[in-house]
Specification:
By secondary structure, the chain is of the alpha+beta class. It has helices spanning about 5-20, 25-40, 85-100, and strands at about 45-50, 55, 60, 65-70, 75-80, 105-110, 120. It has one domain (about 5-120): 3-Layer(aba) Sandwich (Trna Endonuclease, Chain: A, domain 1), CATH 3.40.1350. It has a 5-stranded mixed beta sheet with strand order 1-4-5-6-7, with helices on both faces. Helix 1 (about 5-20) packs across helix 2 (about 25-40).
């Protein structure tokens, strides 16, 4: 099963959150509201999932904290920024690599039209 199965339902849930709350709120508000909307829609997810970070034979004390992991396959990174940058995309790509999730959604709620704030990431091929 591939994480892409969850992209549309998550984007629909995020669109509803954006429709109700609008833009300009802190990220934490959108993250909590999105989790509630996913729950209401019976979309399986884990919130604040900790993934161990491994370097060679060492497991680092500090784990990686993922906001939302949907269906065990899709990382959802909800942000509220003036402009999405390459740094946001690179951070999500690193989270995907370290967690083994095949797909990621970067959702910026601080935009007038939500679809302009959604970026879908796949792992690099090769």
């Amino acid at each position: 099963m591939h994480g892409d199965r969850w992209s549309r339902p998550v984007i629909a849930a995020a669109t509803e959150v954006h429709r109700i709350l609008g833009l300009g709120l802190p990220e934490t508000v959108y993250k909590v509201a999105l989790a509630e909307e996913l729950h209401r829609r019976s979309i399986p997810f884990e919130r604040d999932k900790t993934v161990p970070i491994r370097y060679r034979d060492l497991v680092l004390v500090t784990g990686l904290h993922l906001d939302l992991v949907v269906g065990g396959e899709l990382i959802v990174d909800a942000i509220s920024v003036d402009r999405m940058t390459q740094w946001h995309r690179a951070r999500l790509a690193t989270h995907m690599k370290l967690s083994g999730c095949p797909l990621g959604l970067l959702i910026n709620f601080n935009v007038p039209v939500l679809k302009r704030g959604v970026r879908r990431l796949k792992p690099p091929s090769g």
